[in-house]
Write a structure and sequence with these properties.
single chain
Protein backbone atom coordinates (compact mmCIF):
# COMPACT_ATOMS: atom_id res chain seq x y z
CA UNK A 1 0.00 0.00 0.00
CA UNK A 2 1.29 3.46 -0.93
CA UNK A 3 1.16 6.30 1.57
CA UNK A 4 -1.01 9.16 0.28
CA UNK A 5 -1.41 11.07 3.53
CA UNK A 6 -4.21 11.02 6.09
CA UNK A 7 -7.68 11.81 4.72
CA UNK A 8 -10.09 14.19 6.42
CA UNK A 9 -11.90 11.15 7.82
CA UNK A 10 -8.91 10.38 10.06
CA UNK A 11 -9.21 13.75 11.79
CA UNK A 12 -12.98 13.42 11.98
CA UNK A 13 -12.53 10.06 13.68
CA UNK A 14 -10.38 11.57 16.43
CA UNK A 15 -12.61 14.62 16.79
CA UNK A 16 -15.47 12.23 17.46
CA UNK A 17 -13.40 10.14 19.87
CA UNK A 18 -12.44 13.22 21.87
CA UNK A 19 -16.12 14.09 22.19
CA UNK A 20 -17.24 10.53 23.00
CA UNK A 21 -14.46 8.33 24.32
CA UNK A 22 -16.61 5.24 24.76
CA UNK A 23 -16.69 1.64 23.64
CA UNK A 24 -19.90 2.39 21.76
CA UNK A 25 -18.24 5.09 19.65
CA UNK A 26 -15.16 2.95 19.08
CA UNK A 27 -17.15 -0.06 17.97
CA UNK A 28 -19.34 1.96 15.63
CA UNK A 29 -16.34 3.71 14.04
CA UNK A 30 -13.74 0.91 14.12
CA UNK A 31 -13.90 0.51 10.34
CA UNK A 32 -13.07 4.20 9.90
CA UNK A 33 -10.12 3.84 12.26
CA UNK A 34 -8.80 0.83 10.34
CA UNK A 35 -9.17 2.44 6.91
CA UNK A 36 -8.36 6.10 7.54
CA UNK A 37 -6.01 6.07 10.55
CA UNK A 38 -4.29 2.70 10.94
CA UNK A 39 -3.83 1.89 7.23
CA UNK A 40 -2.09 5.21 6.36
CA UNK A 41 0.18 4.94 9.40
CA UNK A 42 1.12 1.37 8.42
CA UNK A 43 1.88 2.50 4.86
CA UNK A 44 3.95 5.44 6.12
CA UNK A 45 6.05 3.25 8.39
CA UNK A 46 6.63 0.75 5.58
CA UNK A 47 7.97 3.53 3.34
CA UNK A 48 10.20 4.94 6.08
CA UNK A 49 11.59 1.56 7.13
CA UNK A 50 14.58 1.39 4.77
CA UNK A 51 16.06 4.61 6.12
CA UNK A 52 14.73 4.79 9.67
CA UNK A 53 14.09 1.20 10.69
CA UNK A 54 11.08 -0.97 11.39
CA UNK A 55 7.99 0.76 12.69
CA UNK A 56 5.85 -0.29 15.63
CA UNK A 57 2.36 1.11 16.19
CA UNK A 58 1.13 1.49 19.75
CA UNK A 59 -2.13 -0.11 20.79
CA UNK A 60 -5.08 2.30 20.79
CA UNK A 61 -6.17 1.30 24.29
CA UNK A 62 -5.18 3.32 27.35
CA UNK A 63 -3.78 1.67 30.47
CA UNK A 64 -6.24 2.98 33.06
CA UNK A 65 -5.18 0.80 36.01
CA UNK A 66 -3.39 3.62 37.85
CA UNK A 67 -5.09 6.62 36.26
CA UNK A 68 -7.96 8.73 37.51
CA UNK A 69 -8.94 9.25 33.87
CA UNK A 70 -10.75 6.05 32.92
CA UNK A 71 -11.43 6.94 29.26
CA UNK A 72 -10.54 3.72 27.45
CA UNK A 73 -9.02 4.95 24.16
CA UNK A 74 -6.05 7.07 23.18
CA UNK A 75 -6.99 10.19 21.22
CA UNK A 76 -3.93 9.87 18.97
CA UNK A 77 -2.17 7.12 17.04
CA UNK A 78 1.52 6.83 17.82
CA UNK A 79 4.36 4.76 16.40
CA UNK A 80 8.09 4.32 16.94
CA UNK A 81 10.89 3.59 14.48
CA UNK A 82 13.63 1.16 15.48
CA UNK A 83 16.49 3.51 14.52
CA UNK A 84 15.01 6.30 16.57
CA UNK A 85 11.92 8.41 16.13
CA UNK A 86 8.27 8.75 17.01
CA UNK A 87 5.28 9.73 14.84
CA UNK A 88 1.85 10.81 16.07
CA UNK A 89 -1.43 11.84 14.49
CA UNK A 90 -4.40 13.34 16.31
CA UNK A 91 -7.32 15.62 15.56
CA UNK A 92 -4.92 18.52 16.13
CA UNK A 93 -2.40 17.54 13.46
CA UNK A 94 0.85 15.67 13.00
CA UNK A 95 3.81 15.43 15.40
CA UNK A 96 7.22 13.78 15.48
CA UNK A 97 9.80 13.25 18.19
CA UNK A 98 13.28 11.83 18.67
CA UNK A 99 15.51 11.38 21.69
CA UNK A 100 15.52 9.59 25.04
CA UNK A 101 12.29 9.61 27.03
CA UNK A 102 12.05 8.63 30.72
CA UNK A 103 15.67 7.59 31.13
CA UNK A 104 16.54 5.04 33.80
CA UNK A 105 18.81 6.12 36.65
CA UNK A 106 21.96 4.66 35.06
CA UNK A 107 21.17 6.49 31.82
CA UNK A 108 20.62 9.76 33.68
CA UNK A 109 23.99 9.31 35.39
CA UNK A 110 25.82 8.78 32.07
CA UNK A 111 23.93 11.67 30.51
CA UNK A 112 24.98 14.06 33.28
CA UNK A 113 28.62 13.01 33.09
CA UNK A 114 28.65 13.60 29.33
CA UNK A 115 26.93 16.97 29.71
CA UNK A 116 29.39 18.03 32.42
CA UNK A 117 32.39 17.18 30.24
CA UNK A 118 33.44 20.26 28.26
CA UNK A 119 34.07 18.38 25.01
CA UNK A 120 30.95 16.20 24.89
CA UNK A 121 28.77 18.74 26.67
CA UNK A 122 29.56 21.50 24.19
CA UNK A 123 29.05 19.05 21.33
CA UNK A 124 25.53 18.46 22.61
CA UNK A 125 24.94 22.20 22.99
CA UNK A 126 25.92 22.77 19.35
CA UNK A 127 23.58 20.02 18.14
CA UNK A 128 20.69 21.49 20.12
CA UNK A 129 21.38 24.95 18.72
CA UNK A 130 21.24 23.54 15.18
CA UNK A 131 17.86 21.96 15.89
CA UNK A 132 16.49 25.18 17.32
CA UNK A 133 17.69 27.11 14.25
CA UNK A 134 15.66 24.66 12.15
CA UNK A 135 12.60 25.49 14.23
CA UNK A 136 12.65 22.19 16.12
CA UNK A 137 11.89 22.38 19.83
CA UNK A 138 14.12 20.57 22.32
CA UNK A 139 12.31 19.68 25.52
CA UNK A 140 12.61 17.61 28.67
CA UNK A 141 9.48 16.25 30.31
CA UNK A 142 11.31 15.59 33.57
CA UNK A 143 13.60 18.25 35.03
CA UNK A 144 15.04 19.04 38.42
CA UNK A 145 14.45 22.43 40.00
CA UNK A 146 18.16 22.77 40.76
CA UNK A 147 21.43 21.35 39.46
CA UNK A 148 21.83 17.73 40.65
CA UNK A 149 23.99 16.94 43.64
CA UNK A 150 27.68 16.71 42.86
CA UNK A 151 27.69 19.38 40.15
CA UNK A 152 28.39 23.10 40.67
CA UNK A 153 25.35 25.37 40.60
CA UNK A 154 27.23 27.74 38.31
CA UNK A 155 28.03 25.03 35.73
CA UNK A 156 27.91 26.50 32.19
CA UNK A 157 25.47 23.76 31.15
CA UNK A 158 23.42 23.77 34.33
CA UNK A 159 20.20 23.89 32.31
CA UNK A 160 21.06 20.62 30.55
CA UNK A 161 22.25 18.95 33.75
CA UNK A 162 18.80 19.42 35.25
CA UNK A 163 17.18 17.27 32.55
CA UNK A 164 16.20 13.66 33.16
CA UNK A 165 15.30 13.10 29.51
CA UNK A 166 15.85 14.95 26.24
CA UNK A 167 13.50 15.07 23.26
CA UNK A 168 13.50 16.88 19.92
CA UNK A 169 9.85 17.62 19.09
CA UNK A 170 8.01 19.04 16.10
CA UNK A 171 4.29 19.69 15.65
CA UNK A 172 2.40 20.59 12.50
CA UNK A 173 -1.20 21.83 12.73
CA UNK A 174 -3.82 20.56 10.32
CA UNK A 175 -3.02 21.78 6.81
CA UNK A 176 -4.07 20.56 3.34
CA UNK A 177 -0.71 18.80 2.83
CA UNK A 178 -1.61 16.37 5.62
CA UNK A 179 -3.86 14.62 3.11
CA UNK A 180 -0.95 14.10 0.69
CA UNK A 181 2.35 12.25 0.51
CA UNK A 182 4.01 15.50 1.63
CA UNK A 183 3.26 14.38 5.19
CA UNK A 184 5.95 11.71 4.80
CA UNK A 185 8.43 14.33 3.57
CA UNK A 186 7.86 16.40 6.72
CA UNK A 187 8.46 13.40 8.96
CA UNK A 188 11.58 12.34 7.06
CA UNK A 189 12.97 15.89 7.22
CA UNK A 190 12.52 15.96 10.97
CA UNK A 191 14.06 12.53 11.53
CA UNK A 192 17.13 13.46 9.48
CA UNK A 193 17.53 16.74 11.34
CA UNK A 194 17.29 14.95 14.70
CA UNK A 195 19.83 12.23 13.84
CA UNK A 196 22.83 14.00 15.42
CA UNK A 197 20.98 14.28 18.74
CA UNK A 198 20.12 10.59 18.60
CA UNK A 199 23.72 9.72 17.75
CA UNK A 200 25.01 11.76 20.70
CA UNK A 201 22.61 10.04 23.08
CA UNK A 202 23.39 6.58 21.69
CA UNK A 203 27.14 7.21 22.07
CA UNK A 204 27.21 8.82 25.49
CA UNK A 205 24.11 7.41 27.19
CA UNK A 206 22.97 4.24 25.45
CA UNK A 207 20.43 1.69 26.68
CA UNK A 208 19.84 1.06 30.35
CA UNK A 209 21.70 -1.69 32.20
CA UNK A 210 18.82 -2.11 34.62
CA UNK A 211 16.81 -5.34 34.22
CA UNK A 212 13.17 -4.99 33.36
CA UNK A 213 13.52 -1.59 31.71
Amino acid sequence: MTFHGWPAESLEFYEGLEADNSKTYWTEHKAAYDAHVLAPMTALLDELADEFGEGKIFRPYRDVRFSQDKSPYKTAIGATLSRGGYVQLSAHGLAAGSGYHMMASDQVDRYRKAVADDRTGEQLRRELEKLEKDGIAVTAQQTLKTVPRGYPKEHPRADLLRNKDLIAWQEWPVEPWLETAAAKDRIAWFLRAARPLGAWLDTHVGPTDQPGR
